Amino acid sequence: MAQKIPATVVTGFLGAGKTTLIRHLIENANGKRIALIINEFGDLGVDGEILKGCGIEGCAEDDVVELSNGCICCTVAEDFLPAMQKLIDRDEAPDHIVIETSGLALPQPLVRAFNWPDIRTRVTVDGVVAVVDGPALSEGRFAANEAAVDAQREADDTIDHETPLSELFEDQLACADMVVVNKADLLGAAAATSLTDKLRGEVRKGVSVLHSEMGAVDAAVLLGLGIGAEDDMESRHEVHHHHHHHDDDDDDHDDHDHEHAHGHDEFESFVVTRPEIADPTAFAAQVADVIRAHDILRLKGFAAVSGKPMRLTVQAVGPRIDSYFDRPFGATEPRETRLVVIGQAGLDRSAIEKALAA
Questions:
Q1: Residue 342 contacts residue 357 (beta carbons within 8 Å)
Q2: CA-to-CA distance for 126 and 353, rounded, in angstroms?
Q3: Could you write out the DSSP letters of every residue in 90-157?
Q4: Which burial class, exposed, middle or buried, applies to 292 when counting CB atoms under 10 A from its CB (0-12, 13-18, 19+)?
Q5: In whole angstroms, what separates CA 218 from the centre of its chain?
Q6: 94-103: per-residue pLDDT in tens?
Q7: Strand locations in the chain, DSSP E?
Q8: Cβ(8)–Cβ(222) under 8 Å?
Q9: What is the dihedral of CA 199, 205, 211, 217, to 10 degrees?
Q10: How many C-beta neighbours within 10 Å does residue 353 have?
Q11: What confidence tens digit (pLDDT) does each residue in 292-337 have?
């Protein structure tokens, strides 16, 4: 049984920065093949064109599927599933699928669609990422241009025009496994922090709220790309691959970072190993508890289960945990459990190791 292809759903209102986030992701995917399913409609179908014409290495024209029959959550059967089928049936299957919903789609029906029999054995929901417009939200609006969001809604006959934006926004937050507060550089440190704290109170426990500027969020954090690769996991202690080295910097640099809410540059990861586990369900619950207690962004890896020849793959984004048996352990492979933990700098490594090994 092959590894399932992880799929990330990106939600957020028009203008929040979904396209910028996705573009940054593709430019920094380090050779991983990311397929995009984009759901915009009418005059807003520019997103697909931007991405197709961007000449980004690793993002070929046929890696972008545009669904233009209205809101993705209302056309799941006739639009979304065939598009997914086409992607996963390709000779060179993608390493990851990113689905950008129109800002008005409710993510819940889409996430449920992953349970379709043909899809669920081959694709897994990696996580739902909600992108929010930091400056607009701190001023009490849901989008920089609410009139444009309303016009977008009027143009689409398939969706309910009555739901207030505030309710749509609540639904997006309720389904999110990670919230990205974009345009944080326009907020200033104090406003960014208070907005982040406010949002943390509105999401499920264990959902992380990150800052970003121009949609720049590390691919390993957003998609988990590059973590959990068992062939070279030990070499992946740091997920920086950013240009911030603090060794030779003076303290002013940290203040500057703080002022610009540069939190996204500071990620770390480490590997936790433990012996076989007895009960996969109990183990998943244990992992979820550790994630919530320690603000872990992502956790990925595999476990050996007593009495089972197959390896259990485990991956989590925020509180969403997915586990399934992917393949038998090899003859020379140690029957152990190896988990990669990733979070913002300052994770309490020894406490996390202890909690995961308990």
A1: no
A2: 23
A3: SSS--SEEEEE--TT--HHHHHHHTTSHHHHTTEEEEEEEEEEEHHHHHTT-SSTTHHHHHHHHHT-T
A4: middle
A5: 10
A6: 888 888 876 6
A7: 5-11, 34-39, 64-67, 96-100, 123-133, 178-182, 208-211, 267-274, 298-304, 310-317, 320-328, 337-344
A8: yes
A9: -140
A10: 18
A11: 999 899 999 999 999 999 999 998 998 888 888 988 998 888 999 9
Q: What is the pLDDT of residues 245-276, one digit of tens each?
A: 334 444 444 433 333 333 444 788 889 999 99
Choice between 172 and 60, residue whose per-residue pLDDT is larger:
172
Per DSSP bridges, beta strands 96-100 and 34-39 are: parallel
Q: Are strands 64-67 and 178-182 parallel, antiparallel or unpaired?
A: unpaired
Residue pointed to by tokens 């060794």: 247
With tokens 């320690």, the residue in question is 294
Instruction: State both tokens at 147.
Output: 């009139």
Cβ proximity of 199 and 144 under 8 Å = no
Per-residue confidence band for 238, with pLDDT thresholds at 50, 70 and 90: very low
CB 50 within 8 A of CB 19: yes
For residues 214 and 131, the answer to whether their CB atoms sit within 8 Å is no
Residues 97 and 63: their CA atoms lie apart, in Å, by 9
Cα gap 196→181, rounded to integer Å: 7
Q: For 106-165, what is each residue's pLDDT tens digit?
A: 677 778 888 888 888 888 888 899 998 888 887 777 777 777 777 776 766 666 656 677
User: CA 270 to CA 267: how far, in whole Å?
Assistant: 11
178-182 β-sheet, strand order: 64-67, 34-39, 96-100, 5-11, 123-133, 178-182, 208-211
CA angle 194, 196, 197 (to 5 degrees): 65
Average pLDDT, the chain: 76
Report how far residue 290's alpha carbon sits from residue 50's, in angstroms, rounded to the nearest whole number: 40
Q: Which residue has the tokens 């104090």?
A: 190
Residue 277 DSSP symbol: B
User: Nearest to residue 265, comparing CAs of 273, 253, 248?
Assistant: 253
Across 99-127, b (16+ Cβ under 10 Å) vs e yields: bbbbbbbbbeebbebbebeebeebbbbbb
